[in-house]
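On clarity, I found the account of how folds are encoded harder to follow than it need be. What matters is that the chain and its backbone geometry are given together, residue for residue. I therefore recommend that a typical entry be quoted early in the introduction. An entry of this sort, consisting of the sequence and the corresponding backbone structure tokens, reads as follows:
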Amino acid sequence: EETSPDAARYLDLVRDRTDHLRQLTEEFFQYAVALSSRSGGSPEAVSLGPALEESLAAWYPVLSARGIAPEIRLPEGPVVRQLDRAALGRVLGNILSNAVKYSAGDLRAALTEDGVVTFTNSAPGITPILAEKLFDRYFTVETGQGSTGLGLAIARHLAEEMGGAVTASCEDEILCVRVRFP
């Protein structure tokens, strides 16, 4: 049935709020699952290069829609670690999600032979102090629309569960997120 312009506007507002609550509920659920899975998944030999390529390919439509063409650097040989494949995918995906939200239109992803994956992008407004807080639960920068502040906290937790570490630094509004798997 026909709705008045005011009713249509209110319906759009309700839809937006409902979508935001759905996203928030999903993030809380995923965070709770990540915290409760102390034993983690089954570690297996995972080649980090192909895992990084798969994550970037999964995010390619979103990156492309934002006009971001990632630059990728991989070492000559394989870099293999004993990791939970699904958790690794989640770590990389959450970091890429953050890059999509806050990048000024660029993204560089690099893997080194010693098992460090580095994501670098221009991030206007991000300071070294904000970069240190990115992995705090519920922390979002002011420009984070629809963000719950849990994605990077989940990424850090999962990486640590697999014996790795995730850090962030910022210099001259260039954000650098490093994932280390020794």
User: Anything to note?
Assistant: The CA atoms of residues 101 and 145 lie 8 Å apart. The chain is about 45% helix and 20% strand. The two ends are 61 Å apart (CA to CA). The chain has a mean pLDDT of 83.
